Amino acid sequence: MAGSAAVLEDSSLLSRLDRALLPIERFCALLSGLAIFSLMFLAAYSVVGRKFFGSPLLGYVDYIEAAMPIIAIMGVSYVQRDGTHIRMDMLVGALHGRVLWLFELISVLLILVLIVALAWGAWEHFDRSFDCSRPLCSRDSSIDIGLPTWPSKLVVPVAFGVLVLRLIVQAVGYGRALILGLDNPVAVPLTLTVAEQAQAEASQLAGHE
Amino acid sequence: MMEPIDIGLWTSGGLLVMVLLGMRVAFAAGMAGFVGLVWLRWNGFDYDPARFGKALEVSVRIAGLTPHSKVSAQVLSLIPVFILIGYMAYYARLTTALFEAAKRWIAWVPGGLAVSTVFATAGFAAVSGASVATAAVFARIAIPEMLKIGYNKQFAAGVVAAGGTLASLIPPSAILVIYAIIVEQDVGKLLLAGFIPGAFSAVVYAVLIIGIAVVFKTVGPPVKGFTWGQRFAALPPALPIVAVVVIIIFFVYNPFGEAWGTPTEGGAIGAFIVFLMALYRGMRWSELKSALLDTAKLTVMIFTIIWGVLIYVRFLGFAELPAAFADWITSLTLSPMLILVCILLAYAVLGMFMDAIGMLLLTLPVVYPAVMALNGGETVAAADSAFGMSGTMCAIWFGILVVKMAEFCLITPPIGLNCFVVAGVRDDLSVQDVFRGVMPFFIADAVTIALLVAFPGIVLYLPSLVG
Amino acid sequence: ATEWNVSVWGKRRAFTEHIEKIAELVSEKTGGEFTMNVSYGGLSKNRENLDGISIGAFEMAQFCAGYHPDKNRLITVLELPFLGVENLDQEVAVSHAIYGHPAVQEEMAQWNAKLLMTSPMPQYNIVGTGEPRDELAEFEGMRVRATGGLGEAFTAVGAVPTSVTATEAYQAMESGVVDTVAFAQHAHLSFGTINQADWWTANLNPGTVNCPVVVNIDAYESLSDEERAALDGSVDEAITHYLANYGELLKKWDAILDEKGVTKVVISDEELAAFRTQAADPIRDAWIAEIEAQGLPGQELFDLLTTTLAQAKGTN
Ligand code: NA
Ligand code: NA
């Protein structure tokens, strides 16, 4: 479910960290959006070139494949910030108070463990393709025009690195809520009921007609 | 030492628990896959404590290369492009244009405005990859007009919630692309296959509405009195939709000769046309930026589930679970058709509690090979198969059935998302109102699904034209 | 007991028969002690198979040199255009000679990989639609699906290599994205491009791709002596089986062309010679210069290839 939840803010250090991270995340997501936009032009250019000028774009597939990690992964932390990644909220939707924060904390800590492991593995995947004693530092290249693959592989550990910071902020936020027994903690996406979520989604579209 | 298949089952159980406890589906799947990989490898080392580090290291590397490896595929670029078309379409004001045209041309039938709404949502489906967005937009445009001429408000809301579900069957459809990628089938053929069932669903809805309007005179009077001049005047603003439909069809299958290109190119050209239209209608950088951010957000959300689930699928490959499940399904003494119906019913139940994309990604790696095995295998000829169709055709048919099933779940209680969205847009409607209003459309959908199962030709006619 | 995971892709076909055979042979020779579990796409994507070997995800895998030339610079010598390889026996001989060179083995060892055997492929002749192109001038502006060294060769004579994956080749041809597709015969059959074709070049023989089967070095070294002997001793038999199987397929090829109404295009010796001077020599020289510039024995490998080929031609 694509609805996003609210993240409360105040003047605490945690909330300031939350807000400091946000522009970085939004920038990453915008990169993803711009990559999608360029994809549209690239394909249009390729078709027009082929149909009307008999000169297809050499390496078209290689360029698209290199752009895909930016499109698909760069914004991962922006999406985690306001809880847009889908989940089944039957159970957590019914919980509140400390029990809810406990469940959320466990969930975020598990994600943190996973992402640290994946960031490590993704870094090694990049590292295997990177060797600066060679031309263009390339130890792995694409199929048609021999584009080095390391820049696109580097996108993944970078995006996961930002996500790790975000997860730490959220873990602290939930942990704090759990210990202090808060009702409306800052820096974490607050669980909305499905109805509230739909309301948020509907108002998000309101300005678009 | 445990059997790999047992590790597969335990880990899948763990995945289910994590999902039920509210962990984000993408990460729960990734976690299950990662833990499963470590477990499987350490099991292979007889749980020697000294070799746990090695098991962990190899698993981190396998899991860590999966996100990059899996998203770097040209065919996946269709998904963001399809999502972009939908967002651009708002700024191009295609929704209002479509509804106005549908109203002027077809609102003269009994239940006229409701029928117009269904066809307008079907038209919008041709530029929108996502169902929920369609329902939200039409709740704002169509419901007020229906209420103005005395429609029952529950019924009006139900029409919009149901009409919204057409977006995922009629191309462009992100969900069909995802299905095609998981099961490694031709994306173009699947997109083509969606057209007729999507249009067919719209017709079944329309027939139902006309029937209701004829029996209960109070529901939906016809709207007459548009001149031909007014009708034709309504067409030009809706033209980009026609252009997009024609382009996507002709890029996949051109009935008059060579197709124009690949589906990815067709989608991109379609998005480009809608983009030009949006520019013409006054879209500027700030709007474009928010459209791009929204597109990126939805795209990343979908891709995160894709790579998360594919880490889990990678583990399943090492655990050989899909093959074991397929063996089990084919060893059952029930008739294949009965088993297929049970699988579809299971999807109906699951869909009541889960998001469609998450549901498909989580289940297909295991269910799809089983269905293919049930039919007689990937390469079976139509004559030797259980369902009377070749392996490729069975993959397409099952895909459309599953996607229709997932769409059906968008309007079923307790979490039918389209109903919540419609209620969210309208202050005067409660969720119960919308669920009550959408009830007749359950019957329409059940009939549609039954017909698609009984007459696979509805699904397979178009794809069978493409060699 | 030792169980190896083997990562290949696609479906079981002529191209994977030696792997299926070697799995059968080692199990037989070790009385079921050493088994191989061949997975078609379940363990890795084809272009990540070498990464998978490097990290120990699985013990044996197949890949093609052209997928990622920078990972395996040296064996791309086998994908240079117009080497003059005439049949699969010669292809095996040159591949295995190159695989045996210490520099090649060292480059593969950086990926923790040991080259076990090749997957010999016949020359990648092209199928096309419309009027047969049997003169060099007609290659100008031709949109051809070809990768690696072959792609470069076609570029040299004015054609435009257009990249589509093997699985998209049929649709690309049908939709006019490409006019021609370069494949080995088994691939023209399994990807359906033969069904779109009006003609096939019988003697263009521009080159082929090279797809070795490799094993993880650590896994190889931890085999018992008996298991290792069973593996090494089965290579020749597996290759023989592969060649016999592919030979059957090639025998049927002419009948298939007849049945589908595909014209066999024979290109004149003068045209072929012109193609070679325009494409083969400059590309080979550029390859050698580029490899030598990185401090690797490019010239030596190319000479090894030509002498091995000459010997192979002498003996059969
Ligand atoms: Na759609
Ligand atoms: Na639902």
> How many strand elements of chain B?
0
Give the overall form of chain C: globular
Q: How would you describe the shape of chain B?
A: globular
Mean pLDDT of chain C, to the nearest integer, reads 92
Membrane topology (chain A): Multi-pass membrane protein
InterPro entries (chain A): DctQ (IPR055348), TRAP_DctQ (IPR007387)
Domain Tripartite ATP-independent periplasmic transporters DctQ component (chain A): 40-172
GO molecular function (chain A): transmembrane transporter activity
Give your account of this protein's structure:
The complex is a heterotrimer of chains A (209), B (467) and C (316). Chain A has one domain (12-208). In chain A, 66% of the residues lie in helices and 0% in strands. Chain A has six helices and no strands. Chain B is mainly α and 467 residues long. Among the domains of chain B are: 1-72, no CATH class; 75-298, no CATH class. Helices cover 75% and strands 0% of the residues of chain B. Chain B is built from 21 helices and no strands. The longest helix of chain B is centred in the middle third of the chain and has 35 residues, at 285-319. Chain B is globular, with a radius of gyration of 23 Å. In chain B, 62% of the residues are buried. The model of chain B has no long low-confidence stretch (mean pLDDT 87). Chain C is built from twelve helices and eleven strands. In chain C, the strands form two sheets. Chain C has a six-stranded mixed β-sheet. A five-stranded mixed β-sheet of chain C has the order 2-1-3-10-4, sandwiched between helices. In chain C, helix 1 (17-29) links the parallel strand 1 (2-8) and strand 2 (34-40). In chain C, helix 1 (17-29) packs antiparallel against helix 10 and helix 5 crosses helix 11 (269-293). The longest helix of chain C is centred in the C-terminal third of the chain and has 36 residues, at 225-260. The A-C interface holds A 50, 54-56, 58-62, 124-125, 128-129, 134-135, 138-144, 146, 148-149 and C 47, 51, 54-55, 66-71, 141, 143, 147-148, 151, 160-165, 177, 294. Residues 125, 128-129, 167, 170-173 of chain B line the site of one sodium ion. Chain B: One of its GO terms (molecular function) is transmembrane transporter activity. Chain B: The chain crosses the membrane at residues 15-40, 71-92, 112-143, 155-182, 194-220, 232-254, 266-283, 295-316, 328-350, 357-374, 386-403, 408-426, 438-462.
